[in-house]
Amino acid sequence: MMALRELTAGVLTRLTKQLMDSDKINPMRYNTSTDSVLTELLLFSKAEYMVALAAYFDESGNHDGASIMVVAGYVATANQWKAFDHSWSLALRAANVKNGFHSTDFENNRKDFAGWSQQKKVRFLSELVDIVRTNTTLLICNGVRHDDFHRVKSEYGKVNISAYQFCSELCMHYLSSWARESAQRYPIEVFFEQGNKYLSDTMKLYIEATNTNYLREQSRVVKISAADKYEYTPLQAADLIAYETYRFWRDKGAREAPRFPLSALLSTKYRGGLHEDGTIRNHFGQILKIRSRLKTTKARRKHCDSLAS
After folding, report:
1. Which of helix, strand or coil describes residue 108?
2. Cβ neighbourhood burial of 206 (10 Å; 0-12, 13-18, 19+)
3. For residue 55, which phi and psi values (nearest 5 degrees)?
4. The domain containing residue 56 runs over which residues?
5. pLDDT tens over the chain, length 309 residues
6. Are 268 and 136 in contact (CB under 8 A)?
7. Is the peptide bond before 258 cis (omega within 30 degrees of 0)?
8. 60 pairs with which residues across the strands?
9. Helix, strand or coil for residue 21?
10. How many domains does the chain have?
11. How far is it, in rounded angstroms, from Cα 76 to Cα 175?
């Protein structure tokens, strides 16, 4: 058994090093075949061995008239997400929910949830919350009031960053800091719900980061993709926490105690919060430094490539 574990650890270390050293990773491409990174890692893993991590994020508050922007989601191991997907899909099937879970449809009794009684909704939601709590490692959730964000943004002149991008980059920041502090050795994949008009710019920034050895090693993120929540069940959990957090912060503020289901969802390990002027200003400066470093690194790489050719 010990020899097998040593072999497993050796293979995982080699695969991880290849990921960290390779400049040929295409973060835009999600491959579910047996040559994908996650599958390759899982083939050499034991059930109790933490092999790789994935984070899934969704947003709430990007509609007209919204007062707050929230980007939130969960981090879990590949094995946890596999168990999550199985349990979540079973719950949807048992409730005859054919088109996936979407919070606004659920809240307003639309589509698959038309005609549901309040008792049935509470029972179903309780089951989903238990699945999330059982099968995830970390919750990351960041929000800003649009007025606060734009007031601080105006202090920096013409800066090309939206509230969505700001919150998304904060999620990446908290993910990376957690990975370093908890000494995570293995690569992290990140998925954002597709459809936000600012997502492509956010992804371009972090694709550049995953193509830079130093920043890739610092963040542990090797791949970032846009995905559809109806095909990726973890994004439905991200939708749930983003929606519930948005509604709570919009109606109650950050200083009051949340009620179910948010109270249960927040009982897991949690990083982030509703940021006000001071913390927005502090994080704004950090994000601009990271962007500046990326631009410098990109320019250096371009210069080196021109010399090599």
Report:
1. coil
2. buried
3. -120, 140
4. 2-308
5. 334 344 334 444 444 444 444 433 333 232 333 233 333 333 333 333 344 899 999 999 988 899 999 999 999 999 999 999 999 999 999 999 999 999 999 999 999 999 999 999 999 999 999 999 999 999 999 999 999 999 999 998 888 889 999 999 899 889 988 988 887 777 889 999 988 776 776 666 666 666 666 556 666 788 888 999 999 999 999 999 999 999 999 987 656 788 899 999 998 899 999 999 999 998 888 878 777 776 666 556 654 555 555
6. yes
7. no
8. 70
9. helix
10. 1
11. 11
Q: How far apart are CA 53 and CA 264, in angstroms?
A: 23
CA distance 57 to 42: 23
Would you state the structure tokens that stand for residue 164, as one six-digit string?
A: 């969505």
Show the tokens assigned to 151.
């007031």
Q: What whole-number distance in Å separates Cα of residue 38 and Cα of residue 258?
A: 36
DSSP, res 186: S
Residue that has been written with the tokens 């320019």 in this structure: 299
Assigned token pair, 243: 């929606």
